[in-house]
Amino acid sequence: MSMAITRSSGANAPSGPHVLPDPGADSTPAREGRIDPLRFLFSYNAHNLTKVVTEVGRATGAYWIDAVQRIAKPGDAARRSLLWLSTMADRREPTWHLPNEVALSTPFAVLRDFTEAGHRDDDIVPTLVLPPQAGHSSTVIDYSPQQSQLAMIRAAGLTRLYALDWRPATTATKTVTITDYLEVIDRSIRRMGGKANLVGDCQGGWLATIYAALHPERVNTLTLAGAPIDFHAGDSVIAASTRLMAGTMGMAPYKALVTAGGGNMPGSAVLSNFISIQPQSEISRQLQLLENIDDPTHVERYRVFEDWFKYTQDIPGAFYLWLVENLFWKNRLIAGTLTVGGRKVDMSAIDCPLLLLAGSTDHITPAPQLFAAAEKVSTPPADITYRTASAGHLGLFMGRDALRHDWPVLMEAVYSHSIPEDRRKAGGTGKASRRRNSVRSVENPRDTPRVPAP
């Protein structure tokens, strides 16, 4: 069940039925010391170990029951095992599914134009999506023909649609840092017409927030999904581990990783970290594959996810070290002490409509880390939307449930802010049709077990 609210902060908040973030989950940096990182990590890992043991026990029982049922076919177990191993090893590079044109190319990022030919002259503010950047391909926003955030956004009426595609880091781009990323966003928006709706997923979200604070005149609406803004809020294993490690050893461990990667942060190291955060998901995914190895629908769903999840790319070393120190460790964005290129990043400069989408089971970015953004911006309370999807972290960007039930609602609101004033006053056109089209752009889940994802 998804939840959505629009509310204000402070003593003058309007009365009425609201669904608020968990009051026990701190969303401000003032109480960041309330959790002992070491104690939290010990408890978290102990809980995960229990889940791992439970999943292995479940799968083992299912395997032996299946083996007994297949006892008349002794060669079948060997066939299934070989097929299982080959499927796990068969990885392919993820690709974009929607047709697009390259509108701008740099050594570290590409601006892709997903606008269909018949809509290039539409009188609507263009939309720019900033994908996550955590060692994986940007194609997560166009995950599959059946599950595409971009297709959903376009079907919601935001027909002039662009996305940045983060390229894998190389020796030549290892010194790329935050100012370079902000510059390519600015160049992209200027090329798109000078003003855009920004949609930021995960790390693309804090990047969009920094840009919006520095260039508020260029941002029409700001949508953030699973984006850490207050990096120390809520119960986050990433925040706890960073504070523990950096608090005791400074940046030395992170610099060592970058040095070992030839000046870049290896995507394989980022992947290993994600797997270690929820090892039960990795184990469950592989064991479910064995159980369903003869189900082509399940195998295909598994393959599509693994192709994206396991095909990693490196992150520019200078950029990675900057974000660890300034955001993950010192939490300077929400504290208001962040500077970029000699300019202070003041979130109160953001006054455009703000839409926030969190996941109810997101262990990477707990909802308080995202919802804290609303307390720092100058956006009128009536133009701030909070929504909590029944999803984990990745499910926010590519999960069928979030794409069918949560994103259409948010993008319909963005659409209403993106059309000319006369059409807006008239109530827009085709509201119900846009909602139906955006929902239909994502296929219904097929009758097969879900593939566990972090």
From TrEMBL:
Q: Tell me what this protein is called.
A: Poly(3-hydroxyalkanoate) synthetase
- InterPro entries from the xrefs? AB_hydrolase_fold (IPR029058), DUF3141 (IPR024501), PHA/PHB_synthase (IPR051321)
Q: Which residue ranges have biased composition labelled Basic and acidic residues?
A: 443-454
Question: Entry's Pfam families?
Answer: DUF3141 (PF11339)
Source species, domain of life? Bacteria
Question: Annotated region Disordered: where?
Answer: 1-31, 421-454
Origin species = Pseudonocardia parietis
Q: What is the lineage of its organism?
A: Bacteria, Bacillati, Actinomycetota, Actinomycetes, Pseudonocardiales
- Stretches of Polar residues bias are at 1-12
